[in-house]
Amino acid sequence: MSMVETNYEVHDTKVLNWAKEIIEGSPSEQLVQQEVINAVERNAIWRGQECLNLLAPEAPTSPAVRRLLSAEVGTRAAEGHIGSQQRWFAGTKYIDEIESLCIELLKKVFDSNYADHRLVASMIGNMAVYTALTEPGDDIMTLSQPFGGHSSNRNDGPAGVRGLKVTDVPMDPVELEVDLDKFAAKAREKKPKVVSLGASMTLFPFPLKQMKEIVSEWEGKIFFDGAHQLGLIAGGKFQDPLNEGADVMTGSAGKTFSGPQSGIMVWDDVNLTKPFTDTIFPTLAATHQVNRVAALAVSCAEFLAFGKDYMEQIVTNAKALGNALHQRGISVLGSDKDFTETHQVILDVKRFGGGYEVANKLAEANIITNKNLIPGDRPEDWDYPNGLRIGTTEITRKGMKEPEMEMIADYIDQLLNNRETPENVKLKVLDMTTSFQKIHYCF
Ligand SMILES: *Cc1c(COP(=O)(O)O)cnc(C)c1O
Question: Within 10 Å of residue 111's Cβ, how many Cβ atoms?
Fold first, then answer.
């Protein structure tokens, strides 16, 4: 047993103390309330209006989605499955309608036989998959973090909580794709019950059909964690995992899918319906936020109408931005493969001081990105990796196209090569963002 430190705190105590002072120093609770509202407003102005938001997991939601997130139905309790006999609570007839619309829309968007709408986070969807498909001690194979893997499929996430033994899916560090020969050898040795394809850093598709053929030798399952690519899949701009042999797909509704932050799950096999739904309710979801479900249903409708054009422009913009940065001498991953087939562009910024340094410098000029592990980064590089991840979802939904990608590449180049001060670039960013405030690809 380890000793518990009396003052152990994961958060930055300077900021916590700032809050404590506000709460203690305010003459009334109403003023404390106002402080919260003010902080939200400060963020809405800065991040919402004055920044170039290039964070890959973010997307701006439509006005309809935002309205629904504060709807009355968000105060209602509706545990269980749709239909009065399947609910614990009475009074759910309109909630049943909302949830049915959401499920049927999800099935239509993802062309699946089944869908679930109750996952308040994609992370919980991954927990549901592991709970339903594995037993503690089982072997699984997943992507390591330097190749884009996410904690939800690793030892420090749901897979670890389930007690699974995690082996890396072998990746080719040059092609940035699965090394199929090495995978076949490793998989035949381990015979994993599940192979998870979950990538937070994602540039190119997976050889899913071939991987499915291999794991079928021992009835292994393929789990596609499409957190990032969900919108691209719905818009037909990425591989279609269920169609290519994945047994189940989860995804984040708030990343490229551009809906309310939460999770979804889709699958085709009738035999998986009971294991999955038994795990979702009553195990991992109870009050599942019906306001969010309504907003998710609306984002599905938006996708059916605008998804194809929206996602196409996202990928076009990402390729244009990758190319524009490459032209300016900045090291972009996948430069011999047209840079990307997704919303992401990944830079190797080692010679500019690494991802942490660069992300902070760009943020001084109102350009928001994140540091990222890239192939070659070692465990000790975790906090100061060499990569920088850029996403084009938000700037695309705000109406930017190829000419704006050239401008953004100029700003990044000016900052990295110290040709302009962050203050000067910030002025240019402010000028640019004023013309791109409207949300596109919605009714
Ligand atoms: C973001 C992400 C998740 C978690 O999704 P949330 O909706 O944030 O819970 C899971 N897997 C991958 C690969 C991700 O990138």
Answer: 13
Q: What is the mean pLDDT of residues 217-229?
A: 98
3-state secondary structure (DSSP) of residue 56: coil
Q: What pLDDT was estimated at residue 3?
A: 59
- Distance, in Å, from the CA atom of 103 to the CA atom of 115, rounded to the nearest integer, reads 6
Residue ranges of the chain that CATH labels 3.40.640.10 = 66-300
pTM: 0.96
The three-point CA angle 425-426-430 to 5° equals 120
Backbone angles phi, psi at 68, to 5 degrees: -65, -30
The pLDDT tens digits of the residues spanning 278-325 come to: 999 999 999 999 999 999 999 999 999 999 999 999 999 999 999 999
Q: 122 CA to middle of ligand 1, Å?
A: 5
pLDDT at 381: 87
Q: Look up the CATH number of domain 66-300.
A: 3.40.640.10
Task: Look at ligand 1, atom 1, and give the residue with the nearest C-alpha.
Answer: 227
Q: How far is the CA of 226 from the centre of ligand 1 (A)?
A: 8
CA 169 to ligand 1 center in whole angstroms:
18
Which is the closest atom of ligand 1 to the Cα of 226?
A: 13
